[in-house]
UniProtKB/TrEMBL annotation, chain A:
InterPro entries: AAA+_ATPase (IPR003593), ABC_transporter-like_ATP-bd (IPR003439), ABC_transporter-like_CS (IPR017871), P-loop_NTPase (IPR027417), PstB-like (IPR005670). One of its GO terms (molecular function) is ATP binding. Residues 4-240 form the ABC transporter domain. CDD domains: ABC_PstB_phosphate_transporter. Pfam families: ABC_tran. GO terms for biological process: phosphate ion transmembrane transport. GO terms for cellular component: membrane. This is Phosphate ABC transporter ATP-binding protein, PhoT family. Keywords: ATP-binding, Nucleotide-binding, Transport. Signal peptide: none annotated.
Automatic annotation (TrEMBL), chain B:
It is found in: Cell membrane; Membrane. Gene3D superfamilies: MetI-like (1.10.3720.10). The keyword Repressor does not apply. Belongs to the binding-protein-dependent transport system permease family. Its main location: membrane. This is Tungstate transport system permease protein. It comes from Brevibacillus centrosporus.
């Protein structure tokens, strides 16, 4: 019940395997950093977990719910999808106010108006953008839009938060707010967070544990200290020391 | 030209036939176009090719087909609709629905890539997803409605065939213009044409206001 487990996961495009994970277990309430060189399969992993992409084979156990991923239909996947939220590197804002953007996931869940109001206000407060509630979302700066995307995900109160390089194009001020909010919801709501990042100091700062993907394979998953200071594999040693790996 | 009772009657019937056919076309064409823009299935390419072909259907051909369907010995002859406003609406629905479906499909497909993943990851059901993307694509869809309205109000071949241009019954602006021209009354024909243009201008201006507001909000 208290863990997220991936088993026998494989994603292939036209016969070429781009992701292969025999087994990965994530404990509830921890922050995981996902690192690896470009093209390692990090985004594919999150997209598969968020049911945006179907793997060739594999299953996921999401805090007590077993999901056979390749055969899962869109309709049957909706209740599972609603246990998690996803923030992409480039957020897409709908043509509506900031408030309506943050409320969208809650309206999909048919929550009553007062709950929607309360949760949206809380989420906007978390990301320090309450004054922008009535502004049109298309007018936001990149940093503001990314914080609104985080608020939109958090308003849904997910058990699992998936972040795909969310701070890659943010300035230090927005990054600090983003990181503070992630740590806050992790501590207060016991939310499990998986975050892709190319910023190794950020992974060290935030993550309780990290996983390293290379050439579509999960090479290592360990507590952050062990991961960075005592890497088991030669590939990870090279990667964390900044050497080119191939 | 004096706006006599007869002229008002012609204008009013034109508007009735055009708005009814565009509304019916919207009811069918927009959901169908959105479905095509959002989902993949076997035979989709063929359907798209057929829709694009039907966007350029010759009105006279549509008129002949609807005429044969509604004629006394046709499969729908028992409905006794030939030479009625309803027959004209049917013919125009056949003409405008592919336009609405095709342009909705293009508009939705353009937005689908951007918004599908976000809506899905926020927990949208398939229906909620479709409604969200239709809402995001509304600028393009309104362009389709404007094109459909333009086609319907200026259409003459099909409505002449299935309506018959009967005075006080099925005479609309375009068929009245033809009649005036044939009888040598070019001034009245031109004046009716100007009224038709004015109606089209007003309708499109109304749509443009909405579209421009949307564009402004995006640019800000």
């Amino acid at each position: 019940m208290n863990r997220l487990k991936l088993k026998d996961l494989e994603v292939s495009y036209e016969g070429r395997t781009v992701l292969q994970v025999e087994q990965a277990i994530f404990e509830r309430g921890r922050i995981y950093g996902i690192v690896g060189p470009s093209g390692a399969g990090k985004s594919t992993l999150l997209r598969v977990m968020n049911l945006l992409e179907k793997p060739t084979r594999g299953s996921m156990q999401l805090f007590g719910t077993d999901v056979e991923l390749p055969s899962l239909t869109y309709r049957k996947g909706v209740p599972i999808q609603r246990k998690m939220a996803f923030v992409a590197q480039r957020p897409s804002m709908f043509q509506a106010t900031v408030f309506d953007n943050v409320a969208l996931g809650l309206r999909y869940r048919n929550l009553d108006k007062s709950t929607v109001q309360k949760r949206v206000e809380h989420a906007l407060g978390l990301v320090e953008l309450s004054p922008l509630a009535r502004q049109r979302a298309q007018t936001l700066s990149g940093g503001e839009a990314q914080r609104i995307a985080l608020a939109r995900a958090l308003a849904c109160e997910p058990e699992l938060l998936l972040l795909d390089e969310p701070t890659a194009s943010l300035d230090p001020y927005n990054i600090s707010i983003f990181e503070r909010v992630i740590q806050q919801v992790n501590h207060q709501q016991h939310m499990t967070i998986l975050m892709i990042t190319h910023n190794l100091p950020q992974a060290k700062r935030l993550a309780d544990a990290c996983l390293f993907l290379h050439k579509g394979r999960l090479v290592e998953l360990a507590d952050t200290h062990t991961f960075f200071h005592h890497p088991a594999s030669a590939e990870l040693q090279d990667f964390v020391s900044g050497r080119m790996i191939c | 030209m004096m706006l006599t009772q007869d002229v008002w009657e012609v204008i009013s019937l034109s508007l009735k036939v055009t708005t009814s056919s565009v509304l019916l076309g919207m009811l069918m064409g927009i959901p169908f176009g959105a479905f095509l823009g959002l989902y993949s299935f076997p035979g989709k390419r063929l359907i798209i090719a057929l829709i694009y072909t039907c966007m350029g259907l010759p009105p006279v051909l549509v008129g002949v087909i609807v005429y044969l369907l509604l004629s006394r010995y046709g499969p729908l002859g028992s409905l006794d609709l030939l030479f009625s406003a309803e027959a004209m609406i049917i013919a125009q629905v056949v003409l405008v629905t592919p336009i609405l479906a095709g342009l909705t499909m293009a508009a939705v497909h353009g937005k689908e890539r951007t918004y599908w993943e976000t809506a899905k990851s926020l927990g949208a059901t398939p229906l909620q997803m479709m409604l969200t993307i239709i809402r995001e694509a509304r600028g393009g869809i309104w362009s389709g409605v404007a094109a459909a309205f333009g086609r319907a109000i200026s259409e003459v071949g099909a409505v002449m065939l299935v309506g018959g241009n009967i005075e006080h019954h099925t005479r609309v602006m375009t068929t009245a213009i033809i009649l005036e021209t044939r009888t040598g009354n070019f001034t009245a024909g031109l004046q009716l044409g100007l009224v038709l243009l004015a109606i089209s201008f007003l309708f499109n201006s109304f749509l443009m206001v909405g579209m421009m507001n949307q564009m402004k909000s995006r640019r800000r």
